[in-house]
Amino acid sequence: MTSVAVAVAAGVLVGPWLRASIVASRLPSGDPARGRCPGCSRRVLAPDPGTTVSTALVGRCRACRQRIAAPTVVIEVLSAAVLGLLALRVHPLLVLAAAGLAAAGGIVLGAVDASTQGLPDKVLIPTLVAVAALLVAAGIVDHRPERLGSALAGAAAAFAG
Ligand SMILES: [Zn+2]
Questions:
Q1: What is the CA(122)–ligand 1 centre distance, in A?
Q2: How many domains does the chain have?
Q3: Cα angle 63, 69, 72; round to 5
Q4: Rounded to the nearest whole angstrom, what is the distance from the C-alpha of residue 43 to the centroid of ligand 1?
Q5: What is the 23 CA–ligand 1 centroid distance (Å)?
Q6: From the CA of 12, how far away is ligand 1's center (Å)?
Q7: 71: DSSP letter
Q8: Alpha-carbon distance 13 to 135, whole Å?
Q9: Which single residue of 23, 96, 107, 144 has CA 20 to 30 Å from 48?
Q10: Per-residue pLDDT of the chain (161 residues; tens, 9 = 90+)
Q11: pTM value?
């Protein structure tokens, strides 16, 4: 059960990072409005890191209360629950790490997709590369390459879910 506790703790700890990724992906990029609240155009990301962090944590623009990200705790609870469940079902550790990463990426992509109807490559591609690398490492460590198929299927299921 130790791995489950560690996975749950990891889920809580990565929550703020997932939240920041969601906020960063949700705001439009490549135009002058980048980093501004979609509601009141006030800057909610950079250059002031304090504003970025507090906005990401609360999930709302500080000025007009426009919803920008999921409410506090929701992301953390979700990622902790998902990683805890994976730790119960998935072994060995490297495959668990890959599945957890895929799930975390899936949470970000799901939240971003729900709000913008578009999947950001800057989240999708690094996540896929990292998951693939972990799965390959797991296959090498295990000397059981046939595990890769089922692990990839699990990762795909995590993304689909
Ligand atoms: Zn605003």
A1: 25
A2: 1
A3: 90
A4: 8
A5: 13
A6: 27
A7: P
A8: 23
A9: 107
A10: 688 898 899 888 888 778 777 776 665 554 444 567 778 887 776 556 666 677 777 778 888 888 776 676 788 888 899 889 888 888 888 888 888 888 888 888 777 766 665 666 777 778 888 887 887 777 666 666 566 666 667 666 666 65
A11: 0.62
